[in-house]
Amino acid sequence: MKIAIVGAGKLGLKVAEALLGGDHSVTIIDKNDETLHKLASHMDIMTVTANAKQISVLESLGIESYDYLLATTDRDEKNIVIASLAKKLGCHSVIARVRDPEHMYQMDFIKQHFSIDSIVNPDLSITLEIYKYLVEKYTLSNGIFTSGKISLLEFPARKFPALIQIPMNSFGQILPNMLVVAISRNGKVIVPHGDTIINEDDGLYVIGEKEQIMKLSGKVHERGKYTNVQKIMIIGGGKTGLYLAKKLSEFGIAVKIVEKEKTRCHYLASHLDDNVIILNGDGTDIGFLEDENFDEMDACVTATGYDEENLLLALVAKQHGIEDVIAKVSRVSYSELIGNMGIDMALNPVDICTSNILRFIQGSKRILSSQLIQGQAEIMEIVADYRMKLLNVPLRNLKLPEGAIIAAIHRGVTSIIPNGDTEIKRGDRVIVLCLLSEITELEKLLRTTKTGFFK
Known about the structure:
By secondary structure, the protein is of the alpha/beta class.
């Protein structure tokens, strides 16, 4: 499969890394020759130094022979034009990154008018995950993921006291034929291993046959649970702050936005309802926050343009006793730090957007269904192709990424909760959970050996 990526930024490179290998041919187009030279030295890709907005560049590339083009430059209008030109020149499918809030309510028109197959918006994607957490608390009556005879249930460990302080390798003695595939701990989703101990404050994601899971749900689930959040402070009035404030205020929650740029405050005031309070001030000024009743907030979202600032402010919010604290963090290198801070959730917009793009490219040929978990992990059901490297190998011998786990297998009419000796067979429908930060490594393992996983 031939895929062109325009723009060598974080998102473009993350997608390129996931697509490398197999029979994929990845081309990155950017105007910065130095950046492309560095990429070509350590990635098996073709690079083109050019302005992809020029028709002659796309024609010389032979864009009509490409299966996908992803336009992810730093300008929305440029992405729209490039994607539209590529489509009209014969590219099979095109994707554009569009971030400007001005386009929020005209996405369908843009797609139709410019012949764009898919539009991705990192800020809107992360907003939806934050909204789901704060408003819905990720609590659904039948678990969050159901596939065939298998269901996945999320619940607090404290709802099943017998599980607390036991290691994973003893879990099956208490809940037979079930498996903990993920743990939400201190704002971070982790994939457990045999010696991982379940803590009282953990949120557990347990998979098993639907009938057993429904019985467990009756014992541990907080049915009908909805939000009791009434007051939220958002620190940072960028795109994420704007999107989130709009959705929360429409739901009826009282929202305060702290933004230090006065011109941005005027923009926010003109684009948000009157019930959203816009505060012109420095979010790092704790005295200022306290004067604005920081301690009385039910939740705080830190969404400035700086990861370090977001993490620091999230920690301050927790120290002030705010129940739900969420930070927007783009750097993968901060993942270990996040797990030790005690905040409720940290989200990476690049990871979420990459996952959305990969699922669009894959379509339904191999990925039957997928679901994000707290914006940090993805659970998906794939069809095991006979050319995949993971066939006929005991799971204990598979070189899975640390953040991935084979959760369950459908084999004909049989459902299997696997152990280390289980082998995946051709035609199996395999449920896999993987952290978004490691999705690129998982894609390499799932890819078929000759024609590519996405073919």
